[in-house]
Amino acid sequence: MARLPLLDAIRGMALLGVLLINLRSLSLYDFLAADERLQLPTAAFDAVLLAWMNALYDGTAFTLFTLLFGIGFSIQLNATNERADPQRVSRYVRRLLILLGIGLLHGLIWWGDILRYYAVLGLLLIPLRRWSARSLTLLGLAVILVSPMLLRAWLVPLLPPTMDSRTSAQLAAEAFASTDPATWLSGNLERDLYMRIAVWMLPTYVFGRLILGLALGRTGALLNPRQHLRLWRRLCWIGAVGAAVLSLLLWWRGLALAGSEPGWWRSSTGTALARICRAGFPLALGMAYLAAFVLLFQRTSWRRWLVLLAAPGRMALTLYLLQTVFGIALFYGVGLGLGPRPGLAGILAIGLLAFGLQTMLSHWWLRRYRQGPMEWIWRALTWGRRPPFRRQNADSHH
Questions:
Q1: Cα-flanking dihedrals φ and ψ of residue 390, to 5°?
Q2: What is the C-alpha separation between 51 and 35, in angstroms, rounded?
Q3: Higher pLDDT, residue 242 or 391
Q4: In whole angstroms, what is the distance from residue 380 CA to residue 398 CA?
Q5: What is the spatial distance between Cα 359 and Cα 4, in angstroms, rounded to a whole number?
Q6: In the predicted model, what is the mean pLDDT of residues 145-162?
Q7: Residues 227, 232, 234, 238, Cα dihedral to 10°
Q8: φ, ψ for residue 338 (rounded to 5)?
Q9: CA 362 to chain CA mean position, Å
Q10: What pLDDT is stored for residue 395 in this prediction?
Q11: What is the SS3 assignment for the chain?
Q12: Confidence band, pLDDT 50/70/90 cuts, at residue 207
């Protein structure tokens, strides 16, 4: 199947966002207490950057990344071809099981691995592959917005007790700053187990977005965006307005809780509404970003720049794993031990530089090879044979 530059470019944009967010933890910045952050040389600027990321960035990159995984499922399975359906399903199950293995290995060194969730929850998409886009959309929204509240009542009491977040952060910072590999790896395992319990609603966050990605894939709106411009304009406005309304509600709640009489916001209904707002905001904003990117990509003046992101998007798995290795090698004690000393401003600058280098590497690599090394391994294991790797005309590129 021919590559789709738009999908690859969106994946490249999401990969940049994932890198900048993950570097906050990989650099140990997120583990610092508030007073420790104030001691950094860029503290004043960092506060502005952190507020900006919290308001406009956190959650949206993973929203895009996860939506694209669901869209890819729809494209690869191609549920309309019923004769090939059993074979496609079998191959896709193998593909996800291999991804699970990669994610489990990745999780041994980086507790923030998301591949495990994509692999396990991706299997749950198989029974949904023939649902209509409308039904999938309703189900996806229900999983994201409603299911956490339904699960909270019976699941939370069953979870084992955990330490408080500040203690976990301190222990993680000490383990990751250590020069002893065994201390780092055991600390990573402890942090991983803590986060699986503390952020118990993450599977609903991921699964709901996978379903919405499957719904988008069923519409064909990304395969033929010019034929669906009305849909993309509508999604852009709905996402932007929805994000604005949800953020205003959360701001209003914050003012009420800070006052002497929080009133209705303290009630069970007010608390439930706040949870829906917090779950819905990154989704709405992520959809607005996605739609805006698609619309800009249709303009020649924008497309020639945005398409540069397609190369890293084609090597997303390889680059995602390399980002972890880069972060550990630069910031962890087992590496250069830089830690959070550059401040958030410096860390983000390093991230932008690293992504620029990754982008150049991707363009160089894909002129010589058909796909990234991890993508090639993933495909070879899925199909049970070695696909072509080097381009026939690679020798002409020097």
A1: -85, 140
A2: 16
A3: 242
A4: 27
A5: 17
A6: 87
A7: 160
A8: -65, -35
A9: 20
A10: 46
A11: CCCCHHHHHHHHHHHHHHHHHHHHHHCCHHHCCHHHHHCCCCHHHHHHHHHHHHHHCCCHHHHHHHHHHHHHHHHHHCCCCCCCHHHHHHHHHHHHHHHHHHHHHHHCCCCCCCHHHHHHHHHCCHHHCCCCHHHHHHHHHHHHHCHHHHHHHHHHHHCCCCCCHHHHHHHHHHHHHCCCHHHHHHHHHHHHHHHHHHCCCHHHHHHHHHHHHHHHHHHCCCCCHHHHHHHHHHHHHHHHHHHHHHHHHHHHHHHHHHCCCCHHHHCHHHHHHHHHHHHHHHHHHHHHHHHHHHHHHCCHHHHHHHHHHHHHHHCHHHHHHHHHHHHHHHHCCCCCCCCCCCHHHHHHHHHHHHHHHHHHHHHHHHHHECCCHHHHHHHHHHHCCCCCCECCCHHHCC
A12: very high
Q: Which of 79-93, 239-253, 255-269, 271-285 has the lowest mean pLDDT?
A: 79-93
pTM of the model: 0.92
Tokens 């396990």 locate to 120
Buried/exposed code over 198-227 (b: 16+ C-beta within 10 A; e: otherwise): eebbbbbbbbbbbbbbbbbbbbebbeebee
Q: Which residue has the tokens 């894909």?
A: 366
Quick one: pLDDT at residue 262?
Answer: 62
Backbone angle region of 153, left / alpha / beta, with phi > 0 → left and psi within -120 to 50 → alpha? alpha
Torsion of CA 34, 38, 40, 42, to 10 degrees: 110
Phi, psi of 318 (to 5 degrees): -60, -50
Any idea of the CA torsion for 55, 56, 62, 63, to the nearest 10 degrees? 100
Of 51-55, 240-244, 278-282, 331-335, give the lowest mean pLDDT range: 51-55
pLDDT band at 397 (very low <50, low <70, confident <90, very high): very low
| Main-chain dihedrals φ then ψ at residue 28, nearest 5 degrees | 75, 5
Query: Backbone phi, then psi, for 32, in 5-degree steps?
Result: -75, 140
Q: Name which of 364, 226, 356 is nearest 300 in CA terms.
A: 226
The C-alpha atoms of residue 165 and residue 59 are separated, in whole angstroms, by 20
Q: Name 279's Cβ contacts closer than 8 Å, sequence gap at least 6.
A: 144, 145, 148, 205
